[in-house]
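TICKET: design request
STATUS: open
ATTACHED STRUCTURE:
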């Protein structure tokens, strides 16, 4: 039903008529001649000429008797509806299909479950239909179309209007188990024209972060009282007021900016508001654990609440089983509609065979129907009037794997949102693996780029997402697991070495447990996790290079580290006083600083500082460790004092560890250069990975399959050629290349037959010999049993019986083989003789002797 505002009468405006002079007429004519009337572009239409009707099945071209009866029922329903509701629009019941045959709209829906798991949920189905098809506007925006094509034809042409979109989506959703319906109603201008320029792109909406409430520990009975708060309450109140004024000012500015944005994006009044016909999909709650009824706009693939202002009214809706007409008033759009299809007051159904439950009767109505005769008569009357919906005339909906992968028409689709543009591509269409790009802008005209997000698939370097901030120039690359260097996130502004960058790694996939590396022109910071030496943090400060080489090669001329700071996790196997928490190598000052972990019962930790000196003086004499070379701070000096020898050994060990830390810093620089070089090479090469199951794109798999088929074919030919040749041993005795004579042919035949006869006799003798041997052994075993029967134990008797059973089985088998051989031997001999007579090498020569 149309919204109530459409039915309001326009106020009559009377204007006082004034006579027009000749001068006024000339001015009006001049103004009209200067006006330029824009010529509208040709609207996109459905390609009727591209549909080959001859290839369609008979169900598309004709109607069955049940379908004809359904059309008569629909016409009768339409006449009654027009008589009772003359002020409403005609119902959309039986439009023409692609073969110009009228088909009832419910039979156009073909419930189909797609063989792709990605199309099992409603959101993925709606997005696929929106991406796969191209929208064609309705020929007349004020009434439903005259034609409703089958989903198979729409999929083939990849074009359709909103009714074609809804029919295809409804067929897929019903096949997936949803309670879905096609809706014929009225929508806003944005909805009918798929204009998303006033909508926010879903990819730009950030998910709400759940704020975890910190659980306060229960107060302890003997807790230490906190110190008194000596801050001024007056100053705190003044600071709170100042912060509140700042927030109010920011909120005011934000509100004014939103109002300006709303005013700029406000659409001009639509003269056809409430009259534009549109079709969408209704999904009722219940099935597939749908908690609440909602709408799906098949053009955009987005879901909407039933309270949304884009949906202005509903005339009717249908599924593959029935057809319902909305009898509720849409004065408040669709916000007050009750979608209880079992209520005949709100929804008038066409067929009695609806699967929707009727409203429960009141007690008075229940008492009136207690008479069994009335109930039986009512049931008989309903049975007479019931009519089942004919089956769908549409063929099975099929989507090939190539179509499912390509999705968009010609592999590309562009959507425009409010201050955003979304581009989609099919996999492998772009050489760099780009499948999606989201560009956000600062202004509504989309001229100043703010951010760019690019999604990739099947990249050899495992690149998944690239986030480019145009205002700051910051680039963030996200990688999937599988990168050669276990790279996870790379944040940078330039690919040049020794610049600001942050690299995050999959620490589980790395041997050294590196989790994160931050680099600046003069520093490098690394974070570790899960290392056996409990290293957690390393910070390196580099100094200027000693000498400058051409190319500034880091490999040949590394930067000297000035300061190396390392921090360690707590090692539970060591006491806290001996477990180093932080060590600092000051290479230029020749000092080493150590800080140990703090004990649980202390508030401070031990510290040591070593003054590193050369091991020999200017005269070559060895310098002895002195106490002033180690400055210590002991929390408990009376517990244990470190001797000079221990300090000397510790300092020598720290020297070796300092060399190792310098070497690891140099290796980290080399690794950064290697990663940057690898990323640049992969960015230039654009190598895409292809699955072994993708036989069409995987050239190696295709070549391997063709090679295997070729080998199998050659093996088959070789087996055909090397079949058993019964004359081969005898022909080998003759000189090669010599033509057979009649006497030689007769001799070959006799030798072949005599040899075959001898083989049959030998086989019979062999079977007979085995039979006699088994019989003799069984007799000997029986004689042994008769002689030792008294002294045998139960286990020996069981073994004897088992042996006799097996021996009798072997004897029976040998007897059967011998009898079968005696029966088949003459037949085999005659068959070989017949083959020899028919052999092309002997047939002509043996005719004389025949």
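STATUS: resolved
RESOLUTION: sequence designed for all positions
ATTACHED SEQUENCE:
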């Amino acid at each position: 039903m149309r919204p109530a505002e459409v039915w309001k009468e326009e106020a009559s405006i009377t204007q006082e008529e004034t006579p027009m002079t000749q001068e006024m007429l000339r001015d009006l004519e001049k103004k009209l001649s200067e006006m330029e009337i824009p010529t509208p572009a040709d609207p996109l239409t459905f390609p009727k000429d591209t549909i080959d009707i001859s290839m369609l099945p008979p169900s598309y071209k004709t109607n069955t008797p049940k379908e004809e009866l359904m059309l008569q029922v629909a016409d009768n329903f339409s006449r009654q509806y027009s008589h009772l509701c003359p002020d409403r629009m005609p119902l959309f019941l039986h439009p023409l299909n692609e073969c110009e045959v009228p088909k009832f709209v419910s039979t156009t829906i073909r419930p189909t479950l797609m063989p792709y798991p990605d199309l099992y949920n409603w959101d993925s189905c709606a997005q696929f239909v929106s991406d796969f098809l191209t929208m064609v506007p309705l020929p007349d925006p004020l009434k439903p179309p005259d034609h409703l094509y089958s989903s198979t034809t729409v999929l083939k042409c990849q074009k359709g209007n909103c009714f074609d979109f809804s029919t295809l989506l409804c067929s897929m959703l019903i096949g997936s188990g949803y309670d879905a319906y096609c809706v014929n109603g009225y929508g806003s201008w944005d909805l009918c024209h798929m204009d998303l320029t006033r909508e926010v792109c879903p990819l730009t909406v950030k998910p709400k972060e759940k704020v975890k409430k910190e659980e306060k520990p229960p107060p302890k009975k003997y807790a230490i009282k906190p110190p008194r708060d000596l801050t001024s309450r007056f100053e705190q109140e003044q600071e709170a007021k100042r912060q509140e004024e700042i927030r109010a000012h920011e909120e005011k500015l934000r509100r004014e900016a939103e109002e300006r944005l709303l005013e700029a994006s406000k659409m001009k009044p639509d003269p056809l508001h409430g009259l534009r016909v549109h079709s969408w999909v209704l999904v009722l709650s219940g099935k597939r654990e749908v908690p609440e009824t909602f709408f799906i706009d098949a053009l955009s693939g987005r879901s909407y609440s039933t309270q949304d202002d884009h949906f202005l009214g509903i005339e009717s809706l249908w599924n593959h089983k029935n057809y319902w007409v909305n009898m509720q008033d849409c004065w408040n759009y669709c916000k007050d509609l009750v979608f209880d299809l079992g209520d005949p007051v709100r929804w008038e159904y066409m067929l009695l065979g609806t699967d929707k439950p009727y409203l429960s009767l009141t007690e008075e109505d229940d008492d009136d129907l207690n008479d069994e005769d009335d109930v039986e008569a009512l049931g008989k009357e309903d049975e007479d009037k019931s009519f089942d919906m004919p089956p769908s005339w549409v063929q099975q909906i099929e989507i090939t794997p190539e179509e499912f992968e390509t999705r968009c028409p010609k592999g590309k689709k562009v959507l425009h949102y409010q201050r955003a543009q979304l581009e989609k591509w099919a996999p492998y269409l772009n050489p760099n693996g780009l499948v999606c790009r989201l560009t956000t802008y600062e202004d509504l005209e989309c001229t100043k780029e703010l951010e760019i997000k690019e999604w990739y698939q099947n990249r050899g370097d495992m690149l998944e997402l690239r986030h480019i901030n145009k205002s700051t120039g910051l680039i963030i690359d996200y990688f999937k697991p599988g990168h050669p260097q276990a790279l996870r996130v790379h944040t940078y502004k330039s690919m040049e070495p020794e610049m600001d960058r942050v690299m995050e790694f999959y620490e589980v996939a790395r041997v050294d447990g590196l989790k994160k590396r931050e680099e600046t022109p003069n520093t490098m910071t690394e974070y570790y996790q899960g290392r056996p030496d409990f290293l957690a943090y390393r910070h390196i400060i580099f100094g200027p290079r000693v000498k400058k080489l051409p190319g500034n090669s880091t490999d040949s001329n590394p930067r000297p580290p000035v300061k190396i700071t390392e921090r360690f996790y707590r090692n539970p196997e060591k006491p806290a006083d001996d477990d180093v928490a932080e060590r600092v190598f000051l290479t230029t000052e020749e000092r080493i600083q150590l800080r140990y972990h703090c004990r649980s019962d202390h508030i401070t930790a031990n510290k040591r500082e070593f003054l590193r000196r050369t091991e020999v003086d200017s005269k070559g004499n060895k310098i002895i460790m002195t106490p002033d070379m180690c400055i210590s701070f002991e929390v408990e000096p009376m517990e244990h004092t470190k001797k000079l020898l221990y300090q000397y050994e510790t300092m020598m060990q720290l020297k070796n560890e300092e060399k190792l830390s310098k070497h690891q810093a140099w290796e980290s620089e080399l690794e950064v250069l290697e990663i940057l070089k690898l990323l640049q090479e992969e960015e230039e090469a654009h190598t895409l990975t292809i699955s072994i199951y993708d036989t069409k794109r995987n050239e190696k798999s295709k070549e391997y399959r063709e090679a295997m088929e070729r080998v199998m074919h050659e093996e088959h030919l070789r087996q055909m050629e090397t079949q058993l040749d019964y004359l081969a041993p005898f022909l080998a005795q003759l000189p090669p290349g010599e033509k057979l004579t009649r006497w030689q042919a007769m001799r070959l035949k006799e030798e072949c037959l005599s040899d075959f006869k001898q083989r049959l006799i030998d086989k019979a003798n062999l079977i007979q010999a085995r039979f006699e041997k088994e019989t003799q052994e069984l007799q000997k075993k029986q004689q042994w049993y008769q002689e030792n029967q008294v002294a045998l134990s139960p286990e020996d008797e069981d073994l004897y019986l088992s042996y006799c059973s097996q021996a009798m089985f072997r004897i029976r088998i040998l007897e059967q083989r011998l009898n079968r051989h005696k029966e088949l031997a003459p037949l085999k001999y005659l068959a070989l003789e017949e083959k020899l007579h028919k052999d092309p090498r002997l047939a002509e020569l043996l005719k004389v002797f025949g």
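CLOSING REMARK: Residues 7-18, 36-43, 357-384 have pLDDT under 50 and may be disordered. The CA atoms of residues 76 and 846 lie 90 Å apart.
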